[in-house]
Amino acid sequence: MTYSELKRLYQIIEVKLRYGLDDFLPDDPRVKLPKLARKSLFWVKNQHADKPLGERLRLALQELGPVWIKLGQMMSTRRDLFPPHIADQLALLQDQVEPFDGRLAKQHMEESLGGPLEQWFDDFDEVPLASASIAQVHTAVLKENGREVVLKVIRPDILPVIQADIKLMYRMAGIVSNILPEARRLRPTEVVREYEKTLLDELNLMREAANSIQLRRNFDDSEMLYVPEMFTDYSSERLLVMERIYGIQVSDIDALKANGTDLKLLSENAVTVFFTQVFRDSFFHADMHPGNIFVSYERPENPQWIALDCGIVGTLNREDKRYLAENLLAFFHRDYRKVAELHVDSGWVPPDTNVDEFEVAIRTVCEPIFEKPICEISFGHVLLNLFNTARRFNMEVQPQLVLLQKTLLYVEGLGRQLYPQLDLWDTAKPFLEDWMSRQVGPQAIVEAVKSKAPFWAEKLPELPELLYDSLRQGKAMNQRMDKLYDNFMESRRNQGQARFHFGIGATLVVCSAILFSNHVETYPAVSAAMGVTFWLLGWRACRK
């Protein structure tokens, strides 16, 4: 490891110890060595012993920077895995990270715009409306049309921190792969590379604007999901101007109930919106923590989701979607044999895997989760059990699906908070069955014909000419093939003649040598001359 990497690693350890996060270590004989190292090698004392453990964890992650804040945001959605005093504190990382100076934010905005902020906006508020790990937002009014907007600006000097942590993660992934050969199947380097890409994408706000425009177009006039309008004329890589929305943060259950929101329908719509993004559009919001998700005040009997911060989106190709849909449907139908066969066919497990044993292992993990409300199902525990199964059958992690897996965890966390009795399977199963019928059934043929019909209609008037050109090209091709065949046969004849002449020439030269060695006069010279002559004839035949 380089000096800078060791320095960052020490800084991470120092921050965690300064906030006393070693208190998370259980009283177990297996952790005696780390506790001993804590006391003997690291002299950093817990400087926040007066604060609750959850607050200490939040402050430590916040101080370590955006890579760690993102981890805390994901952890905050898993209230089934963490107690309330931990989850409540981590939830503050979603939009209440310590802000930076509003005057500095204004300065960076003016640098991006190329002039004073007052030239384009009124009523700019230097106090941030919200502050997150990558950026913070301020409110203003657009002079052009009087619409309320928010201005999102990237935190200053954030790139070096991200690059340092990512570099350290690469180093640790390489070390883990070398020390633990069985960890290679998890492809830690590829996973880190995928995480690096998503973080760096978030630093380009024009990418977020483009993603938001695409998602808004996909759900145009939808009653389930609303995406705010982007004002790209004022936006740049470090500044994003967008419509200001008013809604209830999804984590504020009391406010949702007070507004009369149908939480059951809201939860079902969340599942439908997610699967629509994944399977219909192949373009899904991949950062669905509660800080980015709101619910409209309007129509609480038919509530509408509001999606913000599309800096991280995921895409799936046709093969990935087909594979996922077939696997999920097989799970819903408890067809574990089909699940095992799909894993083998897709190459996720080695082709020599014993399908019967794999089927039994999957059944052991998945059978207990069915026919239960979501409050009794933990995808976290299911994934852990599947991980243990994967170890037995050498299953490889697919980096392109890491975002999808993370988003599934977010959706589960949201559903658990809103309506614990939601039956996730009954909600998702009809959607997937309908999608699969449109992909492989009669409707799929009709859709394919409909999609190709305009192209066929465009080419139909050209069909006679295309047919004539095809026949003419076929005739010309036959003529070229005949000519090539004739040339080939002639070449073979010439090569045969050349071999014959070379053979006679060689024989005459050998005879000349024999005659010369026996002191025969005249004949050796004649034989040698004739041999050279035949060689020249053979060379000439090769040149034809």
UniProtKB/TrEMBL annotation:
One GO cellular component term: plasma membrane
Active-site residues from the entry: 287 (proton acceptor)
Functional pathway: Cofactor biosynthesis; ubiquinone biosynthesis [regulation]
Record InterPro entries: ABC1_dom (IPR004147), Kinase-like_dom_sf (IPR011009), UbiB (IPR010232), UbiB_bact (IPR045308), UbiB_kinase (IPR050154)
Pfam families given in the database record: ABC1 (PF03109)
GO biological process, one term: regulation of ubiquinone biosynthetic process
Domain named ABC1 atypical kinase-like: residues: 93-343
GO molecular function: ATP binding; protein kinase activity
Sequence positions that bind ATP: 129-137, 152
Keywords: ATP-binding, Cell inner membrane, Cell membrane, Kinase, Membrane, Nucleotide-binding, Transferase, Transmembrane, Transmembrane helix, Ubiquinone, Ubiquinone biosynthesis
EC number from the UniProt entry: 2.7.-.-
Key word Transmembrane present: yes
Record family assignment: Belongs to the ABC1 family. UbiB subfamily. Belongs to the protein kinase superfamily. ADCK protein kinase family.
Annotated function: Is probably a protein kinase regulator of UbiI activity which is involved in aerobic coenzyme Q (ubiquinone) biosynthesis.
Name under which the protein is recorded: Probable protein kinase UbiB
Protein source organism: Photobacterium swingsii
Lineage: Bacteria, Pseudomonadati, Pseudomonadota, Gammaproteobacteria, Vibrionales
Gene from which this protein is expressed: ubiB
